[in-house]
## 1
Amino acid sequence: MPLCADGQIAQPGDFLPLSVGGWSVVATRDKEGAVRVLRNACRHQNMPVVGTVPGTCESFRCRFHGWTYDLQGRFLAAPPPVAPVDPAPGANDLQSLPVRVLNGLVFFSVGPVSTGVFPLDPGQPYGGTIVTDIACNWKVCVEHLLVGQGAGEPEFAWFWPLMAVRRSGPVVLVEQVVPHTFLRTRLFSHVFGGALETQKLQAAVAKEACERLQLERAAGMPAQGNALLARFHKALDEAYSGSS
Ligand code: FES
């Protein structure tokens, strides 16, 4: 699954907590410069080690009882009253998830590593990420990304289920949908080859359009659209029926 842009954790010690499909994870760059994705679940009592705000640190110290981990998730220390029962090396490390950095984006997996390769290389320098919180279901947000894509639109590709890439001249926009709750979705707009400012209006338009679409769906209005939208709904039907 896509997690973030590589540039969002550009320096050693940078970290970015995220919730993806109910999975609380933290992306970080360790002291050797490698990207890590750790489960944000303390090995003491399974509480989130870090909150929701990104930052930079030397190590992670759990907010609850002080267990400490290095940037690779390795257990370092705990106050004596809450010391781990099993002190064996590795027994108390944060779970480290498979991660791949491809084309300026960080992908992670909660299962075995996929052999698939993200086929689109932005080929342009990372310009930044716009984060937009939208009051809609994630499927409505994907619908918005897919409708209107046809002749005359910028070059467009969709990667089931949560990512779309559009190229317009030298600018490549990677749009990543992150489901949060039933009616809350976060849209990451990763910009390559252009200035962040130029894309802010588009993000605001997307928010307004998604929230309007959500009201239409709640009122029972069916989705109107193109072949891409039909493909999305077919894939959803298959996923929810367990046939794929
Ligand atoms: S839950 Fe993290 S130290 Fe207790």
Note: The helical segments are 138-146, 197-218, 227-241.
## 2
Amino acid sequence: MKTLKLGENTFKLAWSIIKDLKASEYIGVLKCIQCGMCTSVCPAARHTDLDPRVISKRVLDNDENLISDDLIWNCFYCYSCHSVCPVNNSVCEINQILRQKAIKKGNGIPEIAPFSNYAENFLEFGLGSIPINFFDELVQDIGEDWLQLKVDLEDIRAELGLAPLTLPEEDVQDINKILEKTGFKNRLGKIKRVKG
Ligand code: SF4
Ligand code: SF4
């Protein structure tokens, strides 16, 4: 009878995901039973070659090529896989961590560049908000009322006795300092240079 020998690097990729700050405390990466529930509910699997069950298997197989595989960019973080997994695994979180690894290696810039304006908004307003370049598409999807609500929002809030959504300039400056110290600005600059 053969004995399965596990070296310290056998689950290196899996452990690097489990130990990542982004991973839930009880993520069941090593418990995956390959049941395929995740794939059965994954909208991206219906329309692309992404297969969450296979992603999980490749992590357990310590397949480092996954980090540079374009497949990981087809996930859109809907958390459906996360919510149905019987062993608390989350391919959604796995994908997020794999993408961070990819970005650190200099991959994935074309995939994240279209969203760089979200990051710009943090710098400009100190808050996350929908970038203006998405407005046309949102109006097409939701209708003109959505845009009108945005235009009127501060007045509506004032009528309701609520504070403005915008932050005072000094707070925005403080947030900018934090974004600079943490490397956010630097990383955004790199993305924009590649984006051109
Ligand atoms: S649902 Fe969970 S246990 Fe089943 S294949 Fe997907 S990750 Fe593995
Ligand atoms: S989070 Fe990603 S992998 Fe999971 S079901 Fe949604 S699209 Fe699929």
Note: The chain has a mean pLDDT of 92.
